[in-house]
Amino acid sequence: LAKTTQPISMDSYEGQEVNITCSHNNIATNDYITWYQQFPSQGPRFIIQGYKTKVTNEVASLFIPADRKSSTLSLPRVSLSDTAVYYCLVVSGNTGKLIFGQGTTLQVKP
Amino acid sequence: DVKVTQSSRYLVKRTGEKVFLECVQDMDHENMFWYRQDPGLGLRLIYFSYDVKMKEKGDIPEGYSVSREKKERFSLILESASTNQTSMYLCATRWDGNTGELFFGEGSRLTVL
What we know:
The complex is a heterodimer. Chain A is mainly β. Chain A has strands spanning 9-13, 18-23, 31-38, 45-50, 53-56, 61-64, 70-75, 84-92, 104-109. In chain A, a hairpin with a 5-residue loop joins strand 6 and strand 7. The termini of chain A are far apart. Chain B has a single domain (4-112), classed as Immunoglobulins (Immunoglobulin-like), CATH 2.60.40. Chain B has strands at residues 4-6, 10-13, 19-25, 31-38, 42-49, 56-57, 65-70, 73-78, 87-94, 103-104, 108-112. In chain B, the strands form two sheets. In chain B, strands 2, 4, 5, 6, 9, 10 and 11 form a seven-stranded mixed beta sheet that branches. In chain B, strands 1-3-8-7 form a four-stranded antiparallel beta sheet, with no helix packed on it. Chain B is globular.
């Protein structure tokens, strides 16, 4: 299963767009890319999942280039409540196996 | 909405005690998982289950066992708790598929003295 690499931490200000990039060089053909958000003292919560190109939902957008070796989670106009840890995962479409990495701690400042 | 309920948010146990962590889900999901989360190590999979009475070892099963007698309930058992099992334990569920989203409970913070 492909290992993911993402920045340990990021800072932003309220109202800005935040882009968190994740690399997954060894992604396999049947693997999907998934992002989760975790607040302190809570379990992770699913944000978005994609296979290729662009996926958008009411919370975020996910951009995946043609080679699928990286992906970018885009959070539009962040607020203080978006301060959390964001995990990028590769999920095997064959086995369902997934691995949580260290995640990116996003700090949104006023 | 899917509801995943973990029986205890906080537990304090002594070394050598038997510990039961219960997880109940209300959405008829086939798959259930137990993770532990530690600072600097992220979430690590302990055990998972794809169906009643079925279980599979995850990445760190040593010192743990599980039970799934009913579809909605997945229990994590520490036969003889040790201090290195002090951690946050998270239960998750997923419908019958490989790429569906995981739904997590609130977590159970276990301290072993």
